[in-house]
Specification:
single chain; mainly alpha; about 0% strand; extended
Length: about 70
């Protein structure tokens, strides 16, 4: 599963950015589940705040016309 998640993100990045991410992940090593969950909660909070501010649109299937 980790490999597919990693390839999902790295396939959408430049080669250099993907290499840097891989190096960072390798250097970080194993991470506690509680730390991962805390980081995920922070991301969700930030996304919701940006949605409320109107800075981003995420999670919907609405179509937009400029």
């Amino acid at each position: 599963m980790l490999t597919s998640a990693r390839s999902h993100f790295t396939s959408r990045m430049s080669q250099r950015a993907a290499e840097m991410l891989a190096e960072d992940m390798d250097a970080l090593g194993p991470v506690r589940v509680r730390d991962v969950k805390a980081a995920q909660a922070e991301i969700v909070t930030a996304v919701r705040r940006l949605q409320q501010e109107g800075s981003i649109a995420a999670g919907g299937k609405e179509e937009y016309v400029e």
